[in-house]
Amino acid sequence: MSGKYRPCAVLLLICLFAFSIAGCVRGEEEPAPLSIEGQKIVVWDAVEPTFPDAPSYQASVAAIVERFEKEHEVDIDLRFMTRQEIDQYLEEGKTQSGEAPSLVHSTEWPVFHDAYRDVTQDVDPSAFIDAASHYWTRDGKLYGIPAYIHWFGTAVEASTVAGDLSEVLAEGAWLDVIAGKTGYWYDSQAFLRCVLDWPENGWTPESIVSYLKWVKEHYGSPVEDPLALWQDSVVQALSPVNPFLLRWINTSEGAKMRLLPTAGPNGSSRFYYTVPGYIVLGDSPAERRCAALLGQLLAQNLGRWAVRVLGCVPANVEDMSFYHLECGWSYSDRMTLLEQLESYSLTVPTQRESQVRFKISQTCQDSLKGFFNGDIPEQELIDKIQGILSGE
Amino acid sequence: MRGKRPLLLILALVLALGCAAASAKRPAFLETHETDEPLMPEDPPVTRPDVLELKIRLSELGLYDGPLDEVYDKRAQEAVKEFQKGFWLEPTGVVDLATWRALGYGVKRPAQTVTEPPPEGYVTIEVDMDTLQLTVLIDGKAWKSYPVAGGRWTTLTPVGEWKIVEKGYERGGAFGSRWMALDVPWGSYGIHGTNRPWSIGSYASAGCVRMFNEDVEELFEIVSIGTPVRIRGPRPALDFSKPLVRGAVGPEIVLLQEQLRALGFDPGQCDGQFGGRTEANVRELNALFGVGLGGVATMDVYTLLGIRGRY
Fold first, then answer.
1. Is A276:A302 a contact under the CB 8 Å cutoff?
2. Which residue of B has its CA nearest to A86?
3. Would you call B208 a catalytic residue per the annotation?
4. B268: domain range?
5. Does residue B273 lie in a domain region?
6. Staple partner for A229: which of A85, A234, A323, A353, CB 3.0–4.6 Å?
7. Which of B288, B290, B300 sits opposite A228 (nearest CB)?
8. Is B290's CB within 8 Å of A242's CB?
9. C-alpha dihedral over A383, A387, A388, A391, to 10 degrees?
């Protein structure tokens, strides 16, 4: 090649290089989003209770679905189901009400099933607070759209525990206040899980029985119908309480109960959290995308409703301002709920894990009264639980 | 006249057969709640709930000023004889169908505010025992109201959501000219006419809803088997001292179902039967509020529903 053509060749090479780079860049661009127009999906939402002077959850969901249908030109079949129907469907994959859903409310006790779809492509996990997205993440994939943080704790007559929650917890003063005056729901699913679903405690027969012994020592004999006893002023504290129950209690005549964490035998006092949300099911990519897009709106709506009506922490970072302005807790109480969330590392249990916990709970419930009354010796209860764990 | 005699005989036969057919299939409430048995002047005197209605009417007519109770005493017997004389009835003191009918003469049914036939649409009925009004609703909108009589304080009209399960004709005794039976699971109740029209607007029945015969005849044509009937009003003393489980029946269950609905659940028809749907609702409530497991309505459930210690 003569020197006359060399600059042209260099220019040509530069152009070729530039075009190829541009081509590569274009090639890495994300493809156009999958169209969901014309999709028909079935949505199962859970019925939320109606509280006086509170907005209707069901009405807000209906309005969102209607707007979504118009905006995306899709057809949504919205059904409100009981939690039992939802749980049964997720467990068995059968529906008695016709078409299978593409989007389902997970309820307050989520259980992981293989049918759940990874929504990472359509839902940005960073939109949620860490504890919430972590709860629904498995192998780096997001399998649910978190809505809010559902807490479990102890409700105590506010007048008996004055001061900032952080101080109360540091001093552990409230433990003495409520000792012997707490009504426990032994038959509640949350009773054992609140304390034992922590990595340091673990679900060993010894840890379970040790916790029960501690409860027996500090809180006395089991009672029936603690809520009725609280109404009769027989007990001043109730455990475990969830947002629905505390809201109900505090709307009862003259009641002012404060939310405190659940006490544990090793001096720890913690809230137990689960993260209700929405699960995407279905096979077709367009169906799944449609469900995921709607699921984000419904999750945010449920989160905001839970903030305003129940005093819960929203899962969506964007809605944290609602929490601080509208949840109704004092600054100290709000921050304590959030601080405890920072160290929270639980994830949605698998069906197997959930079954083991349920069986242990049932065994304890069946034997609990006997154990507390001294009819069932400690070793017998340990053996029973050991039997379940080894059987699994 | 002689030529017309066979015709009259046939007519009488048809009427007799018709009446026999109508009375052959009578719902239980017609047998148990009110009676067409004549009231006899006996010594010692008979005590019957309808004596109170009799005494009220005699007192309205200025024939009786004794105690208003259920005892058919001498003074009441004399007043009845007096009344019978005035109506060219034999003054026996026996209160039979003819006497009851005569006692009702002169009682005016209130003027009708709606005289047009009902529009097309879904018919439901609401009975308000506080105002003693029965309202027909067409597609949920009130169309026409009728005055009624309700149950006495000792025999309250059952509050709840019922359905008409049977309809029939009567000959004009204590049940008037028409009756409609309701599916109340703990007793036999219905809506019917009366031969004591002065009782309309009061609490006089054994739990049934009484109407003027003209009104019940109109209503009879509007409703059909399956028409929903919602009754509101005072309730008897309810017992929430024990847990309630599937299979239970009674006014306690109606209140339980109503309160479940008020809290946002869907127990279906508040029909006083603790069936599968009510059980599922109680189970949901227990799980949601974390106060227990299963579908048993315990003291905590009553507390949550605001019914413990209130009734």
1. yes
2. B284
3. yes
4. 251-304
5. yes
6. A234
7. B300
8. yes
9. 170
How many other C-beta atoms lie within 10 A of the C-beta of residue A296? 19
What is the distance between the alpha carbons of residues A302 and A309, in angstroms, rounded to a whole number?
Answer: 10
Task: Give the one of A84, A244, A365 whose C-beta lies nearest to B280's C-beta.
Answer: A84
Instruction: State which of B232, B262, B285 marks the end of a domain.
Output: B232
Task: Return d(Cα A165, Cα A157) in angstroms, integer.
Answer: 14
- Does B299 sit within 8 Å of A225, measured CB to CB? yes
Q: What is the CA radius of gyration of chain A?
A: 26
User: Looking at this predicted complex, what is its ipTM?
Assistant: 0.83
pLDDT in tens, A306-344: 999 999 999 999 999 999 999 888 888 888 888 888 888
Cα distances (angstroms) measured from residue A224 to each of A221, A227, A242, B46, B89? 10, 9, 18, 51, 68
Check whether residue B216 and residue B258 sit in a common domain. Answer: no
pLDDT, chain A, mean: 85
Q: Are residues B224 and B180 in the same domain?
A: yes
CATH of the domain at B199: 2.40.440.10
**Sites in chain B below the pLDDT cut of 70:** 1-33, 310-311
The whole-number pLDDT of residue B147 equals 97
List of domains in chain A: 40-147+275-342 (3.40.190.10), 150-273 (3.40.190.10)
The answer to whether the Cβ–Cβ distance between B303 and A108 falls below 8 Å is: no
Minimal-distance CA residue of chain B relative to A245: B289
